[in-house]
Amino acid sequence: MHQVNKKMLQYRSYLLLPAQRWFVYSSVLVGLIFNLMPHGHFLGFPDFLALVLLFWAIRESQWIGLLSGFFMGLTMDIHYGSPLGEHALGYVLMIHGGLFLQKRIGMFNVWKQTIHVMPLLIGVDIISMFLRYWFFRTPLQMSLITQGLITGLCWPIAYIVLLYPQRRAVNKDYTRPL
Questions:
Q1: Which of 64, 87, 146, 171 is the most exposed place for a label (fewest CB within 10 A)?
Q2: Is 31 part of a structural domain of the chain?
Q3: Residue 61 is part of which domain span?
Q4: Per-residue pLDDT tens over the stretch 120-131
Q5: What is the pTM for the complete model shown?
């Protein structure tokens, strides 16, 4: 038993403190600001808001859930001038999938989490593409899925950046303030 714990400590050299509510909400706000910048319409630019919403819905589902995904999606619909509810439906279904896979995703390392999260992020673009086809008869363009693919590939970066303030060393160093 002692060897298992020693191996686990060697693999993970930090403990996670509880997330601060102000940090969760401010990171969602930063993701919204990144999406509201003018480069958000370019093909292949990641959807930072979807990435942050999905991350916090998986990690802290008591603070970020379906309702916040719906309102952030409506905000993106208003900003992009898309039909009202297009992004909202995509974000709500993405967060619902993240909540469904929450326990499973938490068991894996960041690379396996990326494999589980990528279909959810690609699904936002697929829903948007099919809604535009349904209502406006715009041709289906599979190149629109590249935004979800690139957003999914940004998962390891978001994982490191968003969990960094919560990390604490396993071995307490009494000369550090934490």
A1: 171
A2: yes
A3: 19-167
A4: 999 999 999 999
A5: 0.86
